[in-house]
Amino acid sequence: QTVPEELQNGGGFGYVVAFRPFGTSSWMQTVVASPDAARYVFRNESLPPFSPYEVKVGVYNNKGEGSFSPVTVVYSAEEEPTKAPTTVLARSLSASDVEVSWAPPWESQHKGRIQGYEVRCWRHDEKEENAKRIRTVGNQTSTRVSNLRGNALYHLAVRAYNTAGTGPSSAAVNVTTRKPRETSWAISTFSSLSLCLQVLYRWNKQSSTSVIETNRTWVELSLPFNEDYIIEIKPFSDGGDGSSSEQIRIPKISNAYARGSGSSTSSACTLSAISTIMLSLTARSSL
């Protein structure tokens, strides 16, 4: 940072930049005569990439030299990584998500720091140059790739990057996302219920939602007759959560009819009456 004019204490103000390779004893010095200068570039074509140097900056004016700043360590420009990550693995988490992991590349020479990794993911019927790109930061060696198409073959590759650029790519690995399932719904609403899959319900005047999940083909839910309720049905499986049905309003002791659509892994199921008022559900699985 430059020294303010009120602290320069005389004319002919400038800077003395002293530097030396880290671990050596002899300082090299250069003078920067402008009081507004805030940088100095040392050029040396034989300088190895990412070489550490000790640097300190002093001041002077027509009356003489002032003190130096504390010594700090700076590095010459780094080169992009020269090796690719290794041991790249990918596994499907759901119909839309996969996880990819890798091991850091082995560098024969220390020419720079790895600041993170770039994961590229492209579908088998797409061009690699149009791949989805996700960048991690730091030492993270795994990440999740989301919003993929279900039951589709994807290729994934990983490369390291730093301030100089991106290194070579690993060999691509393949993974197939899990297969989603489609379901159509037909729901008739009355009061005491037996429901398939996952049920979300709340009193119409409340914002909090209650959830019931079961691996059985039904779950029983009893509602009071004197309140309005909002119900949604959402299927779920190893392939991930499906879409919720449309909201179904159950009014006070009255009949209603609602239809929705979503995704499910369940077989067809029908809700039967528990009381004189009943909600029935038919789910038809189509793959």
TrEMBL record:
Database matches in Pfam families: fn3
SMART domains: FN3 (SM00060)
Keywords annotated in UniProt: Cell adhesion, Cell membrane, Disulfide bond, Glycoprotein, Lipoprotein, Membrane, Repeat, Signal
InterPro entries: FN3_dom (IPR003961), FN3_sf (IPR036116), Ig-like_fold (IPR013783)
Cellular component GO terms, alphabetical: axon; plasma membrane
Domain Fibronectin type-III: residue ranges: 1-79, 84-180
GO molecular function, one term: cell-cell adhesion mediator activity
Subcellular location field: Cell membrane
BP GO terms, sorted: axon guidance; brain development
Chief site of localization: membrane
Matching PROSITE patterns: FN3 (PS50853)
Record PANTHER family: CONTACTIN 3B-RELATED (PTHR44170:SF18), PROTEIN SIDEKICK (PTHR44170)
Protein name in the entry: CNTN4 protein
Gene: Cntn4_2
